[in-house]
Write a structure and sequence with these properties.
Layout: E1 2-6, H1 8-11, H2 22-35, E2 42-46, H3 53-58, H4 69-94, E3 99-101, H5 104-107, E4 109-110, E5 116-117, H6 121-128, E6 132-136, E7 138-142, E8 146-150, H7 152-163, E9 167-172, E10 177-178, E11 190-191, E12 193-194, H8 196-199, H9 216-227, E13 232-237, H10 243-248, E14 256-258
Length: 260
């Protein structure tokens, strides 16, 4: 079983509202199709990127209900992430795959203790029927706060717990995990492996204590949870042509392996 996450930063321009990296998305779809093994099975999850993060952050949707003005934003973000998902489905169809969208906002829920619950039955049902299940980060119901944001990583974790896949690939816009933000610090070096001790070597914040990694610490902690149930978890650069295809076929490519 192969579980793949297209990061929002690799299929959209995260700083520009609803801006797609169309050429990169199409190429990644072709690479995934070239590596797809129907017998082993593949499930794809993608981030919301600029179709979800900008409005969700502006209206603080992750925090749950604060005022009625948020409700319009909830509806708009759900619409926007589905618009992105349609573009992902179109790219996969052009690559001759058989994608089926499974939106978390339909039946996923966060309980009163903050635990995310995803119904994995539709994923396996469609996969067994010869389809490629596709899901994404979404606004979901929250039993304590009315609504919240479930990230694509949340979805990947639940799917990894269910499938216990051979390989999980996080397709990003950088070569892997660095000791600092490589877009800001030229001295940053690529880490081959991230484990508990390696986290202490990463500069997550600047001198003022601000997170300059886009929430990388939380993302890596989530990935380490995923590594607890998956055999091989890696971050690779989706902007480098051919890497997804090689990695999905089991090849070794530049990147960072995350271990529990």
């Amino acid at each position: 079983m192969l579980l793949v996450k297209f990061g929002g930063s690799v299929i959209t321009v995260k700083s520009k509202y609803r801006t797609l990296r169309g050429a990169d998305l199409s190429r990644l779809a072709r690479e995934l199709a070239a590596a797809h093994d129907p017998e082993a099975g593949t499930v794809l999850v993608h981030g919301a990127g600029s179709y979800g993060h900008i409005l969700a952050a502006k209206h603080r949707l992750k925090e749950g209900f604060r005022d009625d003005a948020q409700l319009t934003a909830v509806a708009q973000v759900q619409r926007d992430v589905r618009a992105l998902d349609l573009k992902v489905l179109d790219a996969l169809l052009r690559a001759r795959l058989r994608p089926i969208a499974i939106p978390p906002g339909t039946d996923a829920v966060v309980d009163k203790d903050g635990r995310f619950h995803l119904d994995t039955a539709p994923f396996e049902d469609y996969r067994m029927r010869g389809f490629l299940p596709v899901s994404f980060g979404d606004v979901v119901r929250d039993e304590g706060r009315l609504f919240t944001i479930a990230s694509g990583d949340d979805v990947v974790l639940e799917l990894a717990r269910f499938y216990r896949p051979e390989r999980v690939l996080f397709v990003a816009d950088v070569d892997g995990v660095f000791t600092a933000d490589p877009k800001r610090d030229r001295a940053a070096t690529l880490l081959d492996v991230v484990d508990g001790p390696a986290l202490e070597r990463i500069a997550f914040s600047d001198a003022a204590g601000r997170d300059v990694t886009g929430g990388l610490r939380a993302k890596l902690e989530r990935m380490r949870e995923i590594a607890g149930v998956a055999k091989d978890v890696r971050i690779i650069n989706g902007l480098a042509k051919g890497r997804l295809e090689r990695a999905a076929k089991g090849g070794d490519v530049p990147g960072t392996r995350v271990v529990a």
